[in-house]
């Protein structure tokens, strides 16, 4: 028999975050993003990726959208900073935000 306080169980639930990325396609984008997330202890709950041609240039664009689990106690400022640095290195546009509403 275990007794768990409801507020303690809720605190143990991971928070949710969303990541969206778009940029020129190249090998290793998912690997590099995953490495940053893993280094900070985040998990990928869902990942959608697609490649399409850019409307003006016709060059291949890579798009990704990920739903992430953020463990309790993990601050997002460091994650955001590392993701922004990687986005600059990869020359991609990246949005990263915590999901605060229950609808996701």
TrEMBL record:
Pfam families: ACT. Gene3D superfamilies: 3.30.70.260. It comes from the Bacteria. InterPro entries: ACT-like_dom_sf (IPR045865), ACT_dom (IPR002912), UPF0237/GcvR_regulator (IPR050990). Residues 18-104 form the ACT domain. This is Amino acid-binding ACT domain-containing protein.
